[in-house]
Amino acid sequence: MPPPPANPPSRPRVILFDIGGVCVVSPLQAILDYETSHSIPPNWINHSIAASAPSGAWQQLERGDIPLDASFFRAFKADLSDEPRWRVYYTRHLARSRKEKLSDAAEETAYNVPAVPDIDAEWLYWEMMRCSRRPDPHMYPALKRLRAIADESEGRVIVAALSNTSIWPPGHPYLDEGTADGRQHRELRGMFDVFISSAHVGMRKPERRIYEYTVTRLSEFCKTKFAGDEGVRAGDCVFLDDIGANLRVARELGMRTIKVELGRAGKAVVELERVTGFDLGGGGRARL
Question: Can you name the residues that pair with 196 across neighbouring β-strands?
Fold first, then answer.
């Protein structure tokens, strides 16, 4: 006899969102546009940022270890100008673009490598931030619907955020609620029952400890707000992010995950409808 059908997974109680590239337009688009407009080989900037972990300027900023000031921009530019890192990257880029062996490309780059791209790190950073001020046209309306559902759920649905962030200088327009950007910032933060900002807690994704901290904070919120609540576990969460490494750690802890691909947030909304059973405007066949 065939085995009995497995029980379908229960509806997650916590819908946990990344911000950039999920709820708002991805700052990665600004990087892609910068590379294209300056004839920089694709993914060099992302490669350089990732390869500088865990102690690069970008990682230190997102952990709140250093302030967002001129010294950060100098350090960020230095990371993006690292010649040995560029040589390794360019060798792989050459091999991929020519569809040749890595060893063959390495023979050439041992003596002939273009100069490291001269990147305006400060301009790039603020362009990334400007780009990510815009709500995603697919995910943001879904988030609003989900917020309304959570408000009527008496604690059965929790909406939370876990985002790698930086702390803007005091008085910056993005913090000024008299500006459109400031009002948008306030509205976005108000969507979430719990908001974990990496720069404010001294940890960043994909460090395992920030996920564990997030689950603890979520449990504390539920126990405090809802009488008799036993809190939540990682398995009660579904996490949406646009970075594979961030999702991998979440899965290791027991969370369900949804990958939000660049420019394809609508697809992720449909998947979120499937996982939650809610009609979030994505066109999926939600179970209501």
Answer: 162
